[in-house]
Amino acid sequence: MLLGFNHVTRHLEALSGISSDRVGVIAEQKDVPMLPKPGHIAAVFLLRPMDDLIYTHFPTLCYTASLAHPDQLPTRLVLLDPSVEKTLTEVLAYSRVSVLALLDDGASGRLVELVRELVDPPDVPWLKSIVDPRWLGTQIDVQ
Predict the structure, then answer these.
(1) Which end is more exposed in the chain, N or C (fewer Cβ atoms within 10 Å of the end residue's Cβ)?
(2) Which residues form the domain of 20?
(3) Is position 138 within any domain?
(4) What is the arithmetic mean of pLDDT over 37-41?
(5) Would you give the DSSP letter of residue 45?
């Protein structure tokens, strides 16, 4: 399990960086040692409304991070009722919890299965259209 906004975001960003060649983005090659691939995230849970500006990057990051592990099912993004935060803070012994993620390590079992049954993966149509190799042509509206 990953806890916290920054921790989950950094993990998703690391996975998105690995998958950048799959979405048509050319990553800069740097002289850094190869690190092990971060684990696949099965689900990201948000305990704040999605319309908060600070959370708008999560659908895109979940989509691109899923591409780093093409053999796994896509990462799900689950919006929880904010009232759940009080219970989670007590159970996890944290003062505040806004984001948590479950790694797809097989230990989460039934919860991950339930989330995959009930929640569709995030869809990012604009990103799909970027990597689509077909010619769209030019459309000019003249009035």
Answers:
(1) C
(2) 2-131
(3) no
(4) 83
(5) E
